[in-house]
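#onboarding

Welcome to the new folks! Below is a worked example of what a typical request in this channel looks like: someone posts a single protein sequence, and someone else replies with the predicted structure as tokens. Don't worry about understanding the tokens yet, we'll cover that in week two.

Example request:
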Amino acid sequence: MVLIYTIIGITLILCILIYVSNNMLKVTEYRVVNSKIPKAFNNLNIVQISDTHSKMFGKNNEKLIKLVESTNPDIIVMSGDIIAGKKGDIQKAIEMFKPLYQKYPVYYSIGNHELMLDKNKLNKYLKMLENNGVKVLIDNSSYYEKNGEKIRIIGINYDENANMENNSIDKNENFVKIIKDKFNDINKDEYNILIAHDPENFELYEKIKPDLIFSGHDHGGLIRFGKVALLSPRKKFFPKYAYGKNTINDTTMITSSGIGNARIPIRLFNRPEIVKVILKNE
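Example response:
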């Protein structure tokens, strides 16, 4: 009988942990310090939303919207997989974040799930985003200006990332050439932010010398113990950059654990999150 009660107790605890890990939203805050940040952008609050996979929190997504608004963002970056694959409802994807699109400057770059849409549906979705005031960044960039100063926000096409997934970093010189050719006009004296869905190519992104990268894709490692990620959605154990703040030389990458689930629909010790980044120039 003791064994039965023990098993029931452990099962209940595990169910509670899984529920919390999949449904209790949180805000994770980082500070990024860089002397290149213009004075007008000191204390700029950037909120990152990633990998929602169309998951809603409350009626009309009101819990998620209110949580984002409570952080008082200056701008919002969306780092891909906002929609749920080729059967994703593009109207729902628009409506669930429409209050944010109407209130804040939003910069959106795509992930692998957007690319699962057929071409016509994807183009329609991107046009709907633009019609709602969203800056869609796919191998292009936009400046955010404030008090006569500016920072550059760049979005890279996930499709090029996907082609590299099964190769080693040493064999990806073609990828480096692609991104260097696309962004060879990066002014190293400016502060440059890159939105790049896949964190595993951090070493490659660093070669074009962005100052700050926003990424997602790995869902925080699905099961995570502290900062140690166990498994990525692509079934890779102990993914190196699946979560948190990482730095190579002068480039910092923030990887969000995201909000929803996809191929492996489970999280443990890995709550859905929005990310808040405060820029500091000293």
